[in-house]
Amino acid sequence: MRPAPMLACLTMKADQSQLFDTHVHLDRLGPDQDSATALAEAGRAGVGAWLVPGVRRQHWPDLLSLAGAPRIWAAPGLHPMMAGQWGAAAEVELAELLQRPECVAVGEIGLDGLLDVPFQLQEPAFRGQLRLAVAAGKPVLIHCRRAWGELLAILRQEQAGRVGGILHGFGGSPRIASEALELGFVIAFGGPLTYPNARKRVEVLRTLPVEAIVLETDAPDLPPHPHRKEPNRPEWLPLIARRVAEIRGWSLAETARITTANARRVLNLQKEWGQN
Ligand SMILES: [Zn+2]
């Protein structure tokens, strides 16, 4: 479905108090949300910028049509569950997409040890996409579960530190977080941080340097507390920001300023901010 024209609130100049949702699937929200309504609601809630990651190849055109709007960017790529779609044709198409200014990153890519897809398929898809990202000078959005040793080794081998990126849905240890930081990555906090049993994520958030923290909803997945039984919505990013603020002892305005500045830095959006 093509997104409707953006509403007036989205064309206002972004200010530093606005939140940046670094991982939101605007192209596949819940049944009661179209992307234009979701963006307007998120805008009213204080969200001012969005990065839409790819999952499967046939949805890449949807990412592009969304990313034509102000302060919406795309990160085309293949999720590890779609690793079977990787091959010569996908590689050519992705390389072409990465020439476009609105495609600011490659995502969501990585390794997932909980999927039914063998690593023999996942690894070449991950490496191939990483290589394109490094060659294009664009950062990557990483999805990783139960495969951190392999993933960090591949990031090093493929020199991912030259572009850096964001660890999405991070559920690893503080040690893994600090290894990723050394490679130029930052860590996105989403709905799971708000759960009462989020001990590990809270510990990671407490120990991170200020410049390594960004926010994400992953809508329609990973809804924050108290909405865990519903599809996640982009307008709930402030619930996550509030929890980050509590844990770090920041005001909500500081949280927005810090995390938005971090997202812009890692995604190389310093100049484009005013123009897109
Ligand atoms: Zn995602």
Automatic annotation (TrEMBL):
Signal peptide: none annotated. Keywords: Hydrolase, Metal-binding. GO terms for cellular component: cytosol. Pfam families: TatD_DNase. A divalent metal cation 1 binds at H23, H25, E108, D218. A divalent metal cation 2 binds at H143, H168. SUPFAM superfamilies: Metallo-dependent hydrolases. InterPro entries: DNase_TatD-rel_CS (IPR018228), Metal_Hydrolase (IPR032466), TatD-like (IPR001130). One of its GO terms (molecular function) is hydrolase activity, acting on ester bonds. Belongs to the metallo-dependent hydrolases superfamily. TatD-type hydrolase family. This is TatD DNase family protein. It comes from Geothermobacter ehrlichii.
